[in-house]
From TrEMBL:
Phosphoprotein keyword on record: no
Organism: Salpingoeca rosetta (strain ATCC 50818 / BSB-021)
Family: Belongs to the protein kinase superfamily. ADCK protein kinase family.
Domain ABC1 atypical kinase-like: 108-354
InterPro entries listed in its UniProt record: ABC1_dom (IPR004147), ADCK1_dom (IPR045307), Kinase-like_dom_sf (IPR011009), Mito_struct-func_regulator (IPR051130)
A Pfam family: ABC1
Keyword line: Kinase, Signal, Transferase
Superkingdom, natural source: Eukaryota
Name under which the protein is recorded: Atypical/ABC1/ABC1-B protein kinase
Region forming the signal peptide: 1-21
GO molecular function: kinase activity
Length: 528
């Protein structure tokens, strides 16, 4: 047999094998390999765009942002699953990422596809050994909502009680190991390509996401949140879990009729004050962060429902759902985080530095800026009072990339709680901005942080210190409202003016542009 014949036969065998592997991956493994390959190709193209093309053509920055954003948007839509969650997270980063990203990825908030009723039945049979009709008196075949890893069906128990049944999509258990492996590789590659420490977060993120796919864990988290919030924070409710009808991939919970927090018009139509609603939202999460030490990691508007209070329909109730992703805070971290916030708000640099040293952070000012989302200077007044000047911004931008690298130089001491807690804080900031910055979030968080530090009976001196702190915050709050009043008067007189949250966002975005080495951009539409 000639060598050319051998090569042809080998090529034919490889071609047939590749086709067979592709078909097997597509029809029996939910495209696990194909999805990973699409992601790998997109990653290589992204590094090329930002490391090579941008260096050669810096004037094409907007076009490059648009091209990369479209590439990853298409990847998220095609790969679905955890990629939808990734895309939704990107859409919430409108203060950091270029506007080309935020505008495009906002479309993913309602893009999660549903699976067929036959596939739902298959999951039911595997986890319960029964058909839905054998378990429930009624079971709607059409999903009423769909997220990245699961979808919700309305059903009724045998006694007629309405329930929501959360069913995990069958492809998730096959795709998740591949997706998390791909995530690890991508973060490692991006760390090397862009010379910024990122990989230290990988294990914690992967562990948290894996727990999110286990509905028995979510049921436990929900019950803990219910104990922490219901009856403790007024106007807050967490649905009841039916444990006997819950498995790893199926969770049955109390049915809730409500509207998403983002539907401001519907909330107003029900006769409820948006400011009162937002205050309740921030009080609930401040309680979790600074007092309970157990924090919801995904508070996007779809997970925060507003309904009339069942016992008093004239008042509202905030219902917190989807408790799959949580941040359990160690007691020492919760205490340190309370100290951090009180120090930042009162510009107590010695206390701020003390916390940062414990966490291996070498640049307290930069870290405080990242936490507060505004330039922070140790020699300035309290956070709401200090006027942000051009000199402040220039000082913050000086040696920005080197400062970020130095900030994360020793990640061994950095608390892992900060990784997902930062996500929660950013989403909450975004919710406040969307509502018109009607809540002084920094003031509210600081007051609750003081409660976290002085939760137990204290000495007379400590009580005096707490009262003194509250008085100082009341003064800061008065300045805050005066600033907003001036803004309203300027608007009424026809002058342009930005609200508090937007001023913070604009100034911080300018400094981030210098840190990242490319233009982030804030458009007029971002300031509404």
């Amino acid at each position: 047999m000639s060598r050319s014949t051998l090569w042809r036969r080998a090529g034919a065998v490889l071609a047939v094998g590749a086709v067979a592997a592709h078909q097997y991956d597509t029809h029996f493994r939910y495209e696990c390999f194909n999805r990973s390959m699409r992601t790998a190709v997109a990653a290589v193209q992204t590094v090329w765009d930002y490391k090579v093309v941008l260096d050669r053509h810096p004037d094409m920055i907007s076009d490059i942002h648009a091209r990369v954003a479209r590439r990853w948007y298409n990847i998220c839509c095609k790969n679905a699953g955890l990629y939808i969650k990734l895309g939704q997270s990107i859409s919430m980063q409108n203060h950091v990422l270029p506007p080309e990203y935020a505008e495009l990825f906002a479309n993913l908030q309602d893009k999660a596809p549903t699976v067929s009723y036959e596939e739902v039945c298959a999951v039911m049979r595997e986890d319960f050994g029964k058909e839905p009709e054998e378990i429930f008196a009624e079971f709607d075949k059409e999903a009423i909502a769909s997220a990245s890893i699961a979808q919700i069906h309305k059903a009724k128990l045998k006694d007629g009680t309405a329930v929501a049944v959360k069913v995990q999509k069958p492809n998730i258990r096959y795709q998740m190991p591949w997706d998390l492996l791909c995530y690890r590789v991508l973060v490692w590659c991006f760390e090397k390509a862009f010379d910024l420490p990122m990989y230290f977060t990988v294990n914690h993120v992967c562990e948290s996401v894996s727990k999110e796919a286990d509905f028995l864990c979510e049921a436990t988290f929900t019950e803990r949140a219910r104990r922490d919030l219901v009856g403790t924070v007024p106007r807050v409710y967490v649905p009841h879990i039916h444990r006997d009808l819950t498995r790893r991939r199926i969770m049955t919970m109390e049915w809730i009729d409500g509207v998403k927090l983002s539907r401001h018009g519907d909330i107003a139509a029900m006769g409820f004050s948006l400011k009162a609603v937002m205050t309740t939202v921030f009080k609930a999460f401040a309680h979790q962060i600074f007092l309970a030490g157990f924090v919801h990691g995904d508070p996007h508007p779809g997970n925060l429902l507003i309904r009339p209070n069942p016992t008093n329909p004239r008042d509202f109730e905030l219902v917190v759902i989807d408790h799959g992703l949580y941040v359990p805070e160690r007691p020492e971290f919760r205490e340190q985080y309370c100290r951090l916030w009180t120090a930042m708000v009162l510009t107590d640099f010695d206390e701020l530095k003390s916390v940062c040293v414990d966490w291996g952070i070498t640049d307290p000012e930069l870290f405080a800026s990242m936490q507060l989302f505004r330039p922070f200077k140790a020699n300035k007044k309290a956070v709401h009072v200090a006027k942000v000047t051009r000199t402040d911004l220039l000082a913050l931008q000086l040696r920005a990339k080197e400062r970020v690298k130095a900030l994360l130089a020793d990640t061994s001491k950095l608390p892992l709680e900060l990784i997902i807690l930062a996500r929660t804080m950013n989403i909450l900031r975004g919710l406040n901005k969307q509502a018109g910055s009607i809540i002084n979030r920094i003031n509210l968080f600081a007051l609750t942080a003081v409660e976290g530090l002085h939760a137990e009976e204290a000495s007379r001196a400590r009580k005096f210190r707490r009262a003194s702190f509250q008085l100082r915050l009341w003064f800061i709050e008065a300045v805050y409202y005066a600033t907003n009043l001036v803004s309203r008067v300027r608007e009424w007189l026809g002058y342009s003016s930005s609200r508090f949250e937007n001023v913070l966002e604009t100034t911080m975005t300018q400094s981030l542009e210098q840190r990242l080495g490319f233009k982030v951009g804030v458009r007029d539409t971002d300031l509404g």
